Amino acid sequence: MSKRERSEDRYVFVSGFSSNANSHSIARAFATCGKIERIHFRNRKNCIVWFEESESVWKALKFHGTKQPSLNANILKVSVSQEFQPAKKPKPCSGSFIVLDPPRFNNFMIPILPSFM
After folding, report:
1. In principle, which of 5, 51, 81, 100 could form an S-S bond with 56, CB 3.0–4.6 Å?
2. What pLDDT sits at residue 5?
3. Which CATH number fits domain 3-79: 3.30.70.270, 3.90.550.10, 3.30.70.330, 3.90.1170.30?
4. Domain extents for the chain?
5. Phi/psi zone of residue 99: left (φ > 0), alpha (ψ -120 to 50 degrees), beta?
6. pLDDT(117) > 50
């Protein structure tokens, strides 16, 4: 089995836990599933848990929809596919300015007007 095939089926996406949860509390919660290789936080409330064996993933999926008091989770979400929305690109505030490239526009500042919907 190649390294890539082996790594693709060894992780789960986890969300729904408290924002003050850390890697130690996540590791304690999923320790019963199998040996954890690493934990990668995507943001304060989403993470990816990598296991050493693919069988551990199926055990971790049993945590989906459960309450985990150790993680202060009302309902924990565990899945093998990425269910998280990508971070939205922030919109500029009304009344701000865009500085355009000097060669084309000679450093003109163009105001961004508020849009009314």
Report:
1. 51
2. 45
3. 3.30.70.330
4. 3-79
5. beta
6. no
